[in-house]
Amino acid sequence: MTDNGSFTNDLKSKLEGGLPYIAECGGLMYLCDELIDLEDKAHKMVGWFDGKTVMKKRLQRFGYATLNIDSPCAYGDKGGDQVRVHEFHRSEAEVNEKMVYYFEKHRDGECIKSWSCGYKKRQWGGWCLCTPAFCQ
Fold first, then answer.
1. What domain range is 97 assigned to?
2. How far from chain centre, in Å, is Cα 51?
3. Beta bridge partners of residue 85, listed in sequence order
4. pTM for the whole thing?
């Protein structure tokens, strides 16, 4: 995909022109400026989101979590909405865009971990996979 410069340039141009999108997981990675592989080599991506994703040797996020919405995005219209999601990542995102939600992971009714994610640039891009039937 990185060798197909005409496609990435065309996609970025269409995004700048208002093309609707939702970029989950690999889609978010592709729309960032670059992807850093396991050998620390940078690969140019589309450049829509200001930032990069970095591949890791071990899982960084795994399992079910609760997505808590801070501002309107693809998953909800208002702050306070919640959605059950699944994550499975061997990468981390370092993106300089407005964040629109945060996650909480619960065990035995206690919040054991929380983190922010979900980037808004006209539409939305994020890490989680939200397939309601899968996450129930």
1. 5-135
2. 11
3. 65
4. 0.78
- Residue 19 Ramachandran class (φ > 0 left, ψ -120 to 50 alpha, else beta): beta
Q: How many independent structural domains does the chain possess?
A: 1
Does the active-site annotation cover 135?
A: no
Sheet holding 124-126, edge to edge: 22-24, 124-126, 110-120, 98-107, 61-69, 82-89
Task: Give pLDDT tens digits for 91-102.
Answer: 888 888 887 777
Catalytic residue among 25, 73, 117, 128: 25
Give yes or no for a contact between 95 and 117, defined as CB atoms under 8 angstroms apart. Answer: no
CATH number of residue 43's parent domain: 3.40.50.880
DSSP 29: H
**pLDDT for position 136:** 41
